[in-house]
Amino acid sequence: MQVRIRMAMIVGMAVTMLAAVGMSAAAPPAHAAVITDIAYAPAQPAGSRGHLLDLYLPSTGITPRPLIIWHTGSAWTSDDGKAGADAVAAVFNPLGFAVAGVSVRSSAQGIFPAQVHDIKAAIRWLRANAATYQLDPARFAIMGDSSGGWLTEMATLSGGVAALEGTVGTTGVSSAVQVGIAFFSPTDFLQMNAQNLPSGGLDHNSPASPESLLVGCPIQTCPATVAQANPMTYVDANDPPLMFLHGQADFLVPHGQSVLLYNRIKAQCGDATFVSVPGADHMMPQIMDPAQYGAQTVRTTTDCGETVGTGTLNPTWANFTTFLRAGLKMGNSCEVTYATGAWNGAFNGSATIRNTGTTPVDDWTLTWTWPGNQQVTSAWNATVTQAGTQVTARDAGHNSYIGPGSSQSFGFSATATGTNGIPAQFKLNNIVCTRVPA
Fold first, then answer.
1. pTM listed for this prediction
2. Which is the most buried residue in 8, 158, 345, 403, by most CB within 10 A?
3. CA dist., res. 212 & res. 19, Å (int)
4. Do the strands 179-183 and 135-145 form a parallel or antiparallel pair, or are they unpaired?
5. 429 Cα distance to chain centroid
């Protein structure tokens, strides 16, 4: 009975948590098209849903589109992991990303490595059909939570491992991804019980545990199989960048699982960012709770070096987007046209921001430094604040979006004494822009 109750807890968390992190189902997503129940391979067993995906194509941005693959975790008990991708698409479609919600077989339908074979088959199908849906086959990202995070880590870290490719669906196409983000994922099943909270946790060694059911044997009796299901087995210095987040109060998947993974990637001189959130349990609303901002520990390792800080990377969709764009090597560039109309002791100024990059800009901030004694007194189409000579202009809400090749403008009034020179540099969301003469 206790196992069934705990399993119900896991599934219930997976179903409800996305809706609780600011992704409202009532908000109209920017979808150009939603194509549901695409079979990336024949159903196995017949009538099951583990070989289906949903594709959410944006109505904005450039083509070919970068793609985010999402899988919702369920302790491997569900064959409908694509559920929940609509909420992810509501975040990323307006930013120009396509989103694919991918289902894989449950542990009752196929034991490991069936689930890894499935996700790789889905990636191969999406890459083989990239031209049809205007996807960029060189810019695939993957995300997931819990067992979906495990699947994310397996797909990100095991590129090129022939034993995990399988023969499901489309073959002969790369199953590699370029970047991954995983939430509270299991890694080394054999150490989970020892890492449980002092207050308790699941009995992962039980023959009925999710991990034992995944690999088809009580985990302590088949360590070789468990090692093959461990993402750490496949870590090397050539892996794509991976971000993973874990709550220190996780009851279902011990926080130490991500500690192990980070230490392995660090030892192999890989590229990883580990965000450890105090007080957070096994759910995204707690991982992303603004009340925790500034308290999380962030460890980053790349090229055999490491940085450790507290509060340096808040777990927000904006920061996840920045990480994905960097991993996908997406272009970001901008131009600013700055003009003034001066009179004695004061002036009106205007700035036009043009997005010359390949990805949309959403929620923009433009910053500059005055070269003289200028002081902003009012503004329109932006909120403009000043601290000393540092000026920050934020969008006014209605003009927060700047698509590729598009522009937004704002104006302000200011006083000036002495020289009234043009700022030497403008930055859009911390990206240096080219200044264009008015």
1. 0.76
2. 158
3. 30
4. parallel
5. 18
Alpha-carbon distance of 62 to 50, in angstroms, equals 31
Q: Are 143 and 97 spatial neighbours (Cβ–Cβ below 8 Å)? A: no
Given a contact cutoff of 8 angstroms between Cβ atoms, the answer to whether 79 and 103 are in contact is yes
CA angle (344, 348, 351) in 5-degree steps: 145
Tell me, what amino acid is at 47? G
Report residue 195 as tokens.
């890492």
Number of H helices and E strands in the chain, helices first, is 11, 21
Q: Which domains does the chain have, with CATH numbers?
A: 2-327 (3.40.50.1820), 334-436 (2.60.40.290)
pLDDT tens readout for residues 407-435:
999 999 999 988 788 999 998 887 788 88
SS3 182: strand
| Residue closest to 142 by CA, chosen among 68, 82, 59 | 68
Q: What is the mean pLDDT of residues 352-359?
A: 85
- Measure the CA angle with vertex 29, ends 25 and 34; round to 5°: 105
Tokens representing 226?
Answer: 């468990």
What dihedral do alpha carbons 103, 105, 107, 110 form, nearest 10°?
-160
Do residues 49 and 38 make contact, with C-beta atoms less than 8 angstroms apart?
Answer: no
Of 310, 404, 309, 413, which is closest to residue 360 (Cα–Cα)?
404
Tokens representing 248?
A: 């220190």
Q: Residue 246: CA atoms inside 13 Å, Cβ hemisphere, count? A: 26
DSSP 395: E
User: What tens digit of pLDDT does each residue of 19-76 get?
Assistant: 444 443 334 455 669 999 999 999 999 999 999 999 999 987 778 899 999 999 999 9
Task: For residue 201, name the pLDDT band (cuts at 50, 70, 90).
Answer: very high
Residue for token pair 């490491």: 306
Chain position carrying tokens 């660090």: 266
